[in-house]
Amino acid sequence: MLFVKTEKLKKGMRLARPIYNKDGVLLYERSSKLTAQGIQSIHTFGLIGLFILEPAEPVPPMTQEDILFERFQTMTVFALSEELNKLKDSKRGPKLQVIVNNILRRYGHLDKSINFIQNLRSKEDHVYKHALNTAILCAMITHVLNIKLEEQMDTVMAALVHDVGMLSLPKTVSEKEENNDAEREMIASYKTAGFELIGRVFSAEPNIKRICVQSQKMMDNFKVGVEDKRFRPVRGAQVLTVAETYDTMTAMHLNGAPVSEVAALKHLLNHPEIYMPEIVDALIESVNILVPGVSVELNTGDKAIVIRNNEENVLRPMVLGFKDNNIMDLAEKSYSDLEVVDIMKTMDNRCIIDTKTLREHGINVPELKEAEIHTGIAEEGTEVEEYIPGQFF
């Protein structure tokens, strides 16, 4: 499965994720092949990109729980967008608490892990979808940690509203792939203004603002390498920091492709100074990461498929090597030198030879100027390039 930005989509590519409208009605099923009209519709939707199946890749299994999870995301995010825009205008809509209750009812009492499916995002809704997914993760983590209900509700609410300041950020800044120092300072000021707004609207529940502010301070300190031993963030802030980071890393976003769940988990585990180990463990217990059927890359360069997960150490499952059909239990000492580097990014083992590589080896290849892509409804006669299997983009 590959992540492809909208401007790189081609006719014939197959969808790995379904596309729903705001009412939860299915518009495009998985494995549907993109048409010129479909690509123009996706441009109109403003989607950042799509998850695409490779030519020989089968459609991954999807349980009824997975379908309900995606529908819940799709339908809830539109209600959340209305409530967050009310909050932006200093009004607390009654549905915000209903959304918290719905999240906790569905995902705040689970005794099993779920497939945490990342939803498709656009420039217009990525703040809302990030808030919702972060809140769902917070609900599951706080349940595993056995946090009392009042604190659990405050943490989930904080996750829903923590980015409200970003809704007022000018699009010229929010939609840029990279920001300069002045723009980063502007973003920080809008976040701070958002926290002050949260404090006013939730004046009777001061812990919500406290969670948001302390979580942001944790991440700011981490970015500049500052360790304040006197700083004691509340547990809700620690949970929000883990959940927000995991969603940010594994979701599609404006300034790059998402990373795998394994890469995100390794980042969390490698920095216990900001991501509390017991909270990361609760995340691991909440979501499926390396389960049977997942194809992985090993540090030897070999490829393998997970045939049994490891509940003690999720990153050391039992795998079957593709090269020699050898079964390797990475939990055993005899395989201590082996480790999973990442989930396989592609199932296509052909060598990728692009024009840049050819030029580096002294082969003269003409450099073609890319055409400017205009989004919107296609005019009559508009053509979309067709996808040819094996042709890389």
TrEMBL record:
It comes from the Bacteria. It holds the Pfam family HD_5. Residues 123-258 form the HD/PDEase domain. Signal peptide: none annotated. SMART domains: HDc. InterPro entries: HD/PDEase_dom (IPR003607). PANTHER family: CYCLIC DI-GMP PHOSPHODIESTERASE PA4108, CYCLIC DI-GMP PHOSPHODIESTERASE PA4108-RELATED. This is HD domain-containing phosphohydrolase.
